[in-house]
Amino acid sequence: MSVQYQITGAAATEIAASVEAGVRSGELAPGRTLPPVRKLAADLGVAPGTVASAYRRLRERGVVETGGRAGTFVRQRSAFTPVGTLTVPAGVRDLVSGEPDPALLPDLSLLRGKVEISGGNYRDGGPCPDLLDLARDRFAADGVRGELTVASGALDAFERGLAARLEPGDTIAIEEPTWASGRDLLLAAGYQVAPIAIDGEGPLPGQLDTALASGARAFILTSRGQNPTGATVSAERAQQLRDVIARHRGVFVIEDDHWAELSQTPLHFVADAADRWMFVRSVSKPYGPDLRTALVAADADTKARVQGRMALGHGWVSRLLQHFVIAAWTDDGVAETIRRAGRTYVERQTALREALAARGIATWGTSGLNLWVPVADETAAVVSLRDAGYAVAPGRGFSFHGDQGIRVSTARLEPDAAPAVADAIAYASGPAAPPV
């Protein structure tokens, strides 16, 4: 640990606060190992149990994690980690960011003439009825029915739904490997997580059953375009998951369908197998990350809790944003742009998946912006690919079990470039076990 930062405190809360302050300032950088419990206890003149309690608080808040012999170290991301800007070196191709291709997003400025802009007031705030009507029809076409509301993006919906149903310390079953931002939100909010392995068809039912039987109170799954793998829940897997959930009716299920209109594969709905559920469809991937809006379907009680709590806080999602979504959903030109984008993303992902398969490397992705490639040594693979001119994401940011892998974003990878990228990945990956 850096000698420039000294952890202080006489009580567990004070020690934890001192570590959080170091992480927030950047003096305790991500990956930095904290002192062993007994050494820090001796340095501070406190009982080892006091330090152990502080470290436990920090783990529950998602600030640190424990890696066996590696000790306790600062997480790569937490609510207290300074947020930096992803920088890809000059001359290196960006296969790391996982962002939508800006060239495939609709030009929302062309919709301004169709957007209702008014001063508004506090009394009439809330979800726009016209937007809910449009969402109801779109959801029904995919077999999703429930009470509807609006949130400020997927993570906002997750946080509000979980706060309505769970308490800090409760356990949530989530996919492994998983979406890093969602996991970090859960840990920062004080929830425990139970990783559920996935394959190309979604979460494994047996592992979900075990987690729910062991006390997990919620389950979060991704319908299509799972990040980081690109997996899609199949019809057979959806039914298997529904059967498991039906045996544990008290579980709260959140289903994330962020790929939505971009998907070239049908939705196989899972969430409403539970009595308490939420289905979340963000508009960020098809229409742009700045359009921070998600449509939410839920059971009546969960919807009432989420919307009621929102009314006591910031009130509602901006009516301007809601009207931009209405304009986008009712514009024929935008609809064609989205259809073209969906086809293009599939072509790009398929080109790399098939190029890797031709080189003996199996991947899962059939939708979304990414592929997950198992490797023997992810650090060596990332460095090798960088030297070859490609930036990819190391798997440790997505995995609980430390599975060695890399996430390759295909969002801006033209199909004719896929063979060269596959060659570089094959050289960098080394021998590794294929996906289970």
From TrEMBL:
Acetylation recorded as keyword: no
Domain of life: Bacteria
GO molecular function: transaminase activity
Keywords tagged on the record: Aminotransferase, DNA-binding, Pyridoxal phosphate, Transcription, Transcription regulation, Transferase
Domain HTH gntR-type intervals: 9-77
Keyword DNA-binding assigned: yes
InterPro entries for the chain: Aminotransferase_I/II_large, HTH_trans_reg/aminotransferase, PyrdxlP-dep_Trfase, PyrdxlP-dep_Trfase_major, Tscrpt_reg_HTH_GntR, WH-like_DNA-bd_sf, WH_DNA-bd_sf
Assigned protein family: In the C-terminal section; belongs to the class-I pyridoxal-phosphate-dependent aminotransferase family.
Name of the protein in question: Aminotransferase class I/II-fold pyridoxal phosphate-dependent enzyme
